[in-house]
Specification:
10 helices, 8-stranded parallel β-sheet, globular
Length: 270
C-alpha cells in the first residue's frame, strides 16, 4: 500500500487479497473472438454482443430520464463529476431510472483521467459507497489510490465494478496494454481500456487486447479520429460494453448512444 498507485496497480498478477472470486466475474478464457461467461449487471445479463451505455453529463438529462419513457441505451452512466455531486435528488433519480429497467453506473472521473473532479481523490469515497449501496455499479480508475478500497466495497456489496484505464495521447504498446488488463482484472468485474486512436495501427494494437486471457470481461474503445469505428467493431470481438452520449460527447470520438443502439441493436442477448 506504500507504493504510488501507478506502480502498485498496473500489472500485479495476483488478485486483491480479500477475493477468491469477485462477484459476477467471468472465468479466464482464451480469446480469438473474446467470449466470457454471462455477467449479471443489475437486471440484465452481459453476454454475447455489447450493451450500449448512454452517458449523462447534464443534470437536466438525468431528470428527464428519471421521468420519461424514451430509451436510447441499455445502461445509463451518470457522470457525477460533470453533473455535480451536489445535484439535488440525483440518487433518487438514478433509482427511478433503474426502476425503468436500465441499470446505472456511477462515474466520478478525475481531472487527470479526463474528467472534472477537482477535489481530493479521497473525497470521492463516500459517493462510491453510496452508489454501490443503492445502485447497480461504479467505475473507478485503475491508477486511483482508491481502487483497492472501492473494489473491496463492490465485493462486499456484490456489485459489478468497472476498473478503467484511459490514455488521451496515444495507444500504448501491446505489452503495456496486457499489463493494464492484468492489473485492472485484479480489482473489477469489467476491465475498461480507452486509448487515443489516430491511425489504423493504433486500432490494430487495441485489437490485440482480445487475443489473450483475462479473468474479467473487457470493454475496449478508441478515442479520436478512428474512435467511432471501434465502438461498433469491437463488440463483435467481445467488448461487452460500448459507450455513447445521451446529451453531449464527453470524450473525443464519442458518438450518440441512439446511433449505437440502431447499429448494434440485434447483437446483444436479451
Amino acid at each position: 500500500m506504500g507504493r504510488p498507485a501507478s506502480a502498485q496497480n498496473s500489472a500485479q498478477p495476483c488478485r486483491a487479497p480479500w477475493r477468491n472470486r469477485f462477484p459476477s466475474a467471468a472465468d479466464g478464457v482464451t480469446m480469438g473472438v473474446m467470449t466470457h461467461a454471462p455477467i449479471r449487471f443489475g437486471n440484465i445479463m452481459l453476454g454475447p454482443g455489447a450493451r450500449v451505455v448512454g452517458t449523462v453529463s447534464q443534470a437536466a438529462t438525468l431528470a428527464q430520464l428519471a421521468t420519461g419513457t424514451e430509451r436510447n441505451c441499455d445502461i445509463v452512466e451518470i457522470r457525477l463529476d460533470l453533473i455535480g455531486s451536489d445535484t439535488p435528488h440525483w440518487i433518487e433519480q438514478a433509482k427511478a431510472i433503474e426502476g425503468r429497467g436500465m441499470p446505472v453506473i456511477v462515474t466520478i472521473r478525475l481531472v487527470e483521467e479526463g474528467g472534472q473532479w477537482r477535489q481530493a481523490d479521497a473525497s470521492r469515497l463516500p459517493l462510491f459507497e453510496s452508489a454501490l449501496r443503492q445502485l447497480t455499479a461504479a467505475d473507478i480508475e485503475l491508477r486511483s489510490p482508491l481502487v483497492e478500497k472501492v473494489s473491496k466495497l463492490a465485493y462486499q456489496r456484490r456489485r459489478p465494478l468497472i476498473v478503467s484505464y484511459h490514455d488521451f495521447k496515444k495507444t500504448p504498446s501491446r505489452d503495456e496494454l496486457k499489463k493494464v488488463m492484468m492489473g485492472a482484472a485484479n480489482y473489477g468485474t469489467i476491465v475498461k481500456i480507452v486509448t487515443q486512436t489516430n491511425t489504423e495501427a493504433d486500432v490494430a494494437t487495441l485489437r490485440t487486447v482480445f487475443q489473450g486471457t483475462c479473468t474479467a470481461a473487457l470493454c475496449v474503445m478508441g478515442m479520436g479520429p478512428l474512435g467511432p469505428q471501434t465502438r461498433t467493431e469491437f463488440p463483435k470481438l467481445g467488448s461487452c460494453l460500448t459507450y455513447g452520449y445521451l446529451d453531449a460527447p464527453v470524450a473525443p470520438g464519442q458518438v450518440a448512444a441512439r446511433d449505437l443502439m440502431q447499429e448494434l441493436g440485434g447483437q446483444h442477448a436479451g
